[in-house]
Amino acid sequence: MESLYQISSLAFSYPGRKVLDLDELLIARNQVTAVVGPNGSGKSTLFDLLAFLRTPDTGTILFRGKPASGTRRALLRRQVGYVQQKPYLMKMSVRDNIGLGLKFRGETRTAINAAVNAVAGELGITALLDRDAGKLSGGEIQKVALARALALQPEVVIMDEPFTYLDEATVHDIEEWIAGQRKTRNKTIIFSTHDRLRAQSLSDTVLNLSQQNPGPVE
């Protein structure tokens, strides 16, 4: 099993409160990893670190065996698609929201449309493409945010509590997508959930942050 992330002696604090204190953590490449733990256990902070949006107070993060530091961090951010717990969509069409990152990268309109159509088809949201993003349901917003991340073809997809406050149909669709990724093994998927049974059924490895230091949950 090849490790994509290797974390050693990592600590992170907000003013007056330490939220992460990890001796060692390994996350396998091209597998599905679920992170469980109560509110306040540091799941979202860990995900910010794995997405290279924050830097630890102490410790090291290796990505593909090399330190995630200095100018390399900006390059590594492009390898991570991060869908936060409450995604924010721009006031534009669903199509333009999904293609926004590609537009920022300077891709042609033809390439953007092709990528948008592909991920919309993968997630079953083609019918939404011409809708106003401001008029979507919570489940539709979650799918569009995931499509926006996938359009950039990241190596890693991180989803922070992707099942929270969603309707049953959307939960099922996202579960099916994760299960499909587990079969194809062409991306590293990391998601958090409060539901341990869901975590165990959808993932190859479950990490329990309430233990700090998290090892695989049997």
Task: Report on the architecture of this protein.
The chain has 218 residues and is an alpha/beta fold. The protein folds into two domains: 1-79 and 157-218, P-loop containing nucleotide triphosphate hydrolases (Rossmann fold); 89-153, no CATH class. Helix content is 35%, strand content 25%. It has helices at 43-50, 72-77, 94-98, 100-104, 109-123, 138-151, 168-184, 196-202; strands at 3-14, 17-28, 32-36, 58-63, 66-67, 80-83, 156-159, 188-192, 205-208. The strands form two sheets. Strands 6-7-8-3-9 form a five-stranded parallel β-sheet, with helices on both faces. Strands 2-1-4-5 form a four-stranded antiparallel β-sheet, with helices on one face. Strand 7 (156-159), helix 7 (168-184) and strand 8 form a beta-alpha-beta unit. Helix 5 crosses helix 6 (138-151). It starts with a strand and ends in a 10-residue tail after the last strand. The mean pLDDT is 93.
What labels would you give this structure?
218 residues, alpha/beta, Rossmann fold, 5-stranded parallel sheet, 4-stranded antiparallel sheet, 8 helices
Tell me what portion of residues adopts beta-strand conformation. 15-25%
Q: CATH homologous superfamily of the largest domain?
A: P-loop containing nucleotide triphosphate hydrolases
* β-strand number: 9
Q: What does the radius of gyration come to?
A: 17 Å
Helix proportion of residues, in percent? 25-40%
Main beta sheet: 5 strands, parallel
The CATH class name of the largest domain reads Alpha Beta
Do you know the CATH topology of the largest domain? Rossmann fold
Number of domains: 2
Q: How would you describe the shape?
A: globular
Mean pLDDT, nearest integer? 93
Structural class: alpha/beta
Poorly predicted runs? none
Which CATH architecture of the largest domain? Answer: 3-Layer(aba) Sandwich
Helix and strand run? EEEHEEHEHHHHEHEHE
Number of helices: 8
For the largest sheet, list the strands in their spatial order: 6-7-8-3-9
End-to-end C-alpha gap? 17 Å
